[in-house]
Amino acid sequence: MTAEPLVVCEDVARTFGTGPAAVTAVRDSRCSVHSGARIAIAGPSGSGKSTLLHLMAGMEQPTRGSVSWPALGARTRDIGVVFQSPSLVPTLDVGENAGLPLVIAGVEEPELAQRVAEALALVGVDDLAAKLPEEISGGQAQRVAVARVLAQRPRLLLADEPTGQLDRAAGQRLLDALLDATEHLGAALVVTSHDRAVIERLDTHWTMHEGTLRTTESRAVTS
Ligand SMILES: Nc1ncnc2c1ncn2[C@@H]1O[C@H](COP(=O)(O)OP(=O)(O)OP(=O)(O)O)[C@@H](O)[C@H]1O
């Protein structure tokens, strides 16, 4: 039996503003993401990739159509989002940054330390736990941002141009970490990018063109 999808977008559209200044960032787009999927969404700047990801995350409301999370119910907290910029808190060390959402969610010791250590190890920055953000590289900071999301044990990880601020080698290492960690946690992964070297690392390639998503059958793992 096919498992329920994690997220389904049905004829979804998102328009910003009204009247002559209105911009339709996403139009007539439909897709579903299943457990185990590894999807790249390619497309030029301004084609609507980020907006689609925000709709999938429940961070934006569609103007038309619907977004639902059949396998998650209303638990969009099971969705983790990684942005282009790591946005670490400069006064907190790496371990504290990675654990911050868990602290806010009320997770207590010893589980807190355990989950942070696991997440930092999954992306290979466990040796940096006591460093401040200013003491680590951009690539390392982005790994910490990924660890911060992984510590929440998401079932779906949405990464918006996660390698956009990194050089080619650091970008590939970040992608290795994302692929390994999501496989380890059994989380689906959706990555937006316009970098061929990133896109080719994912199993399934979708494209955005002027706000419209073109999908292919995803090689999803279903159970
Ligand atoms: N909050 C907003 N208010 C107004 N317009 C917006 C908003 N967010 C996005 N847009 C517009 O929607 C269109 C799609 O933007 P979006 O950021 O989704 O594209 P993108 O493909 O992710 O681009 P990039 O690769 O440059 O990040 C653009 O024209 C953008 O200016």
TrEMBL record:
Organism of derivation: Amycolatopsis saalfeldensis
Source superkingdom: Bacteria
Keywords: ATP-binding, Nucleotide-binding
InterPro entries, per database record: AAA+_ATPase, ABC_transporter-like_ATP-bd, ABC_transporter-like_CS, ABC_transpr_LolD-like, P-loop_NTPase
Stretches assigned to the ABC transporter domain: 7-223
Lineage: Bacteria, Bacillati, Actinomycetota, Actinomycetes, Pseudonocardiales
GO function terms (MF aspect): ATP binding; ATP hydrolysis activity; transmembrane transporter activity
One Gene Ontology cellular component annotation held by this UniProt entry: plasma membrane
Protein name per Swiss-Prot or TrEMBL: Putative ABC transport system ATP-binding protein
